[in-house]
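input
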Amino acid sequence: MALLRIKCEVAGKVARIEAAAGASVAQDDTILIVESMKMEIPLSAPAAGVIKAILVAEGDDVAEDQEAVLLEIAK
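output
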């Protein structure tokens, strides 16, 4: 198993968390939504796997390239 560190693509505020730690996700499933400049930017799973941890909370300010999710995938 490999651990992927998924980073925010933009700076903004976490608007919604769509999946919880322990949830299985498919490639391209939305994990959370970041609001930036009045736009909602989804943070999606780059591969199928299991969410090990969500490192941010709803309402948190996030920076570009900040780690937000740990995703375990099969190699």
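quick obs: The two ends are 6 Å apart (CA to CA).
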